[in-house]
Design brief:
Radius of gyration: 26 Å
CATH class of the largest domain: Alpha Beta
CATH architecture of the largest domain: 2-Layer Sandwich
CATH topology of the largest domain: BirA Bifunctional Protein, domain 2
Structural class: alpha+beta
Number of domains: 2
Number of strands: 19
Strand content: 25-35%
Bound molecules: aspartyl-adenosine-5'-monophosphate
Distance between the termini: 48 Å
Strand order of the largest sheet: 6-10-11-16-15-14-13-12
Shape: elongated
Length: 449
């Protein structure tokens, strides 16, 4: 008999089927044995009656995470046992034959949905097992939809996908947060961002995007930083103003939210998540205006600070939510000297730049902005930022030979997943998180996230 996926059982009441999957739970009730079976598509309750002598003997041997093949009849559940809130809550598989395909050792912790409240370090130490949990599967299914819908939207807007390198001769973002690698007898770096490459490729293909790994030597242990990130990057030519970039960011995020809402209904329900509200037009303000607003509304004075602090981001989002109902706000115009050399200074007030961040639900989701495209101006910044032009020669060549007005943006897949799903720690939204203290296993046993 061919295998039926568990999600398709609902159309097969009264029919004989064969399913294959894992045992999530075994419950013995008198002489009967109940199971929750799980495959890639969902979960179903099954019962083995004592009259099925062969099957009941096998059932008694089975523990959590055994891999089985089970055949039997799909029955409608009695009215009083129906659970309308879960997949297959109205049916049950009455097992007639049961085969063990693979055994499992006794589990180190309870894997059943109700008993699942492991602390994060234990979850991550046992990722190979905890990935099987429906809650974690839901998180990573949403993440897959986020990445897919980024690609889909970019392509719909005529952006060209390219592959960015991970080994680079120079750092794009500045700062010390870079991993140096021994490259034969030379030094090289792991890419912090495909920034310089997306700008080069933009000068050939106009609209480009990439989905790639970036690496940041984040020396601190926060709930929103990783050392290895999936970065979703875009760059576009022939813009009139930085606001074209802001609008593209808004359309992209709106498309992602819409895709998650339509494609991940079951996952959002399981995770008990409400999507953030994005208005027709997201409120936009300069850093100075945002600081002024925070001061007026809270009495706390961040005016003159060079960036928004974590507290500022939280306060600003709370104020904007109350004033407009929006869960998002764009903040632009950061001090030019605080940001990387490629960001475009405001021609009327060059101390502030035309970089923009999207802040939502109290945290930064995404960064972008207009870039310097004039070669002479770029070279002036290279000098002022004390960069070695020889190390970025390939980038400079693209701009020496004609680069249109342009800009772009980037966001981390893990950060946006965390924010969309309202998770407390970015590691929950990362299958195999790398940070200061962990590469699969903790690097030292006395430090926990
Ligand atoms: P920035 O450094 O702000 O900008 O990064 C852009 C976005 O990438 C994500 N991100 C991270 N996520 C998790 N852990 C980290 N350590 C981490 N660092 C960054 C965030 C952040 O908003 N080149 C520019 C982008 C551009 O202008 O196009 C850049 O890298 O979501």
């Amino acid at each position: 008999m061919p295998r039926t996926l568990i999600k398709d059982l609902k159309g097969k009441i009264g029919e004989q089927v064969k399913i294959q999957g894992w045992v999530s739970v075994r419950r013995d009730q008198g002489k009967m044995v109940f199971f929750d079976f799980r495959d890639r598509s969902g979960t179903v309750q099954a019962v083995v009656l004592p009259s099925e002598e062969l099957a009941i003997a096998v059932a008694k041997e089975i523990r959590g995470e055994y891999v089985i093949s089970a055949s039997g009849m799909v029955n409608k559940r009695p009215e009083k046992n129906i659970n309308p809130d879960v997949l297959n809550g109205d049916l049950e598989l009455q097992v007639q034959t049961l085969e063990i395909l693979a055994k499992a050792e006794p589990l180190p912790f309870d894997m059943s949905l109700d008993g699942y409240n492991l602390d994060l370090p234990t979850q991550l130490d046992h990722r190979a097992l905890t990935l099987r949990h429906p809650r974690n599967q839901a998180i990573f299914k949403v993440q897959a939809v986020i990445i897919d819908s980024f690609r889909e939207f970019m392509k719909s807007q005529d952006f060209f996908e390219f592959q960015a390198p991970s080994i680079v001769p120079a750092t794009a973002e500045g700062g010390a947060e870079v991993f140096k690698v021994k490259y034969f007898d030379k030094d090289a770096y792991l890419s912090q961002s495909p920034q310089l490459y997306k700008q080069i490729v933009m000068t050939a293909f106009e609209r480009v995007f990439s989905v790639n790994k970036i690496f940041r030597a984040e020396p601190s242990q926060t709930t929103r930083h990783l050392t290895e990130v999936v970065s979703l990057d875009a760059e576009m030519a022939f813009i009139e103003s930085w606001t074209d970039i802001r609008d593209m960011i808004e359309h992209t995020v709106r498309f992602i939210l819409m895709s998650v809402s339509t494609k991940c209904e079951a996952e959002l329900k399981l995770l008990k998540v409400e999507l953030p509200v994005m208005l027709e037009k997201t409120p936009t303000m300069s850093l100075t205006e945002a600081q002024e607003k925070i001061f007026t509304k809270t009495g706390r004075d961040p005016r003159g600070d060079k960036d928004l602090s974590t507290q500022d981001e939280q306060d600003l989002c709370a104020i904007i939510k109350e004033e407009t109902g929006s869960d998002f706000v764009f903040v632009y115009g950061y001090p030019t000297k605080q940001k990387p050399f490629y960001v475009y200074p405001n021609p009327e007030n060059p101390e502030f730049n035309e970089g923009v961040d999207l802040i939502g639900r109290g945290r930064e989701w995404l960064s972008g902005g207009r870039r310097i495209n004039d070669y002479a101006q770029l070279m002036k910044h290279v000098e002022e930022w004390e960069m070695d032009p020889k190390k970025i020669e390939m980038f400079l060549e693209a701009f020496r030979y004609g680069a249109p007005p342009e800009g772009g943006f980037a966001f981390g897949a893990e950060r946006i997943t965390m924010q969309i799903l309202n998770l407390e720690n970015i590691r929950e939204a990362t299958m195999f998180p790398r940070d200061m203290n962990r590469i699969d296993q903790p690097l030292s046993t006395d430090k926990k996230e």
